[in-house]
């Protein structure tokens, strides 16, 4: 199932339509990513480049260490990322996985605790070094508590990490098969 690109990525792409310097940055990332033959190499490049860019671009973030409100929101990943993650981290919270599959596939209401990402363990990301690129990209300027799932998301102000968003947009242009994390995990009970 195809999912929408993250908000900041869409905003960066809209800006690039009318700004030639941003357009050139987007195209240069597309060219660079296409140079890698293997999908593993592509995702490795995107993760490393993204972390470098965000060292600068995430200055001014209101996100705090230990905060994990965003881990209660549905996270979309490419199938390639998900396979790469599961290769090294095959263990997920199966109860949460089952609950989230019923939420996303059958629209059944589930408990707040069950909305936590299946990789969140004791308030920490258990796959931190391989966490999805969307998780790396997400930074806010507004109060972290605004990101709480049950709060009005209109009050969440994203940090416009422009180059990072163009990089992620360039990667997703070649990999449109993105979906929510639980939909890409097939664990038999
Ligand atoms: S992969 Fe890690 S950072 Fe991303 S939502 Fe899950 S627990 Fe949070």
Brief overview:
The protein is built from 7 helices and 4 strands; from the N terminus they run H-H-H-E-H-H-E-E-H-H-E. It has helices at residues 7-18, 20-35, 39-57, 79-88, 94-106, 133-137, 162-174, and strands at 76-78, 120-121, 124-125, 178-180.
How would you characterize this protein structure?
By secondary structure, this protein is mainly α. It has one domain. It has helices at 7-18, 20-35, 39-57, 79-88, 94-106, 133-137, 162-174; strands spanning 76-78, 120-121, 124-125, 178-180. It has a two-stranded antiparallel ribbon with strand order 1-4. The protein has a two-stranded antiparallel sheet with strand order 2-3. A hairpin with a 2-residue loop joins β2 (120-121) and β3 (124-125). The longest helix is centred in the N-terminal third of the chain and has 19 residues, at 39-57. The two termini are 23 Å apart. The mean pLDDT is 90. It binds iron/sulfur cluster. Iron/sulfur cluster binds next to loops.
What's the helix and strand layout?
Elements (H helix, E strand, L loop, with lengths): L6 H12 L1 H16 L3 H19 L18 E3 H10 L5 H13 L13 E2 L2 E2 L7 H5 L24 H13 L3 E3 L9
Antiparallel strand pairs: 1-4, 2-3
Helix pairs in contact: 1-2, 1-7, 2-7, 3-7
The protein binds iron/sulfur cluster.
- List the ions, cofactors and other small molecules found in this model: iron/sulfur cluster
* Terminal residue distance: 23 Å
Low-confidence stretches are none
Number of domains: 1
Give the class from helix and strand content and strand pairing: mainly alpha
Largest sheet: 2 strands, antiparallel
